Amino acid sequence: MRWSVLPLLVCSLLGCGPKIPPIASDLPRSYEEGEGVFDARVKKAFPKGTEESRMIEELTRQGFSIRPSPHGNFATFSNKQFPVESVWNVGWEAKEGRVTTVWGVYGGRGP
User: Residue 89 pLDDT more than 80?
Assistant: First the structure.
């Protein structure tokens, strides 16, 4: 029984987290550089005029969690790799079911 915990411990230390969504994969290691690349990808994938429902469907399919708020709409994906958690956010505004503004934010949280 004691050995059954070992794979969980190894995954925890090595960062065996969820698969990174295609729109967020292979970014530069630096969050500062990666954020610009991620933002450009988001804008290219979901240009102004995109149907909001199609964008939500695609982001959900890629593993993002959707959370509307009074300050806009957001889709978030996070990956915990000890000791840092990387976070990708897609924010947008829409009018009459069409995206009017979209942006991507990439960063990390850690000790």
Answer: yes
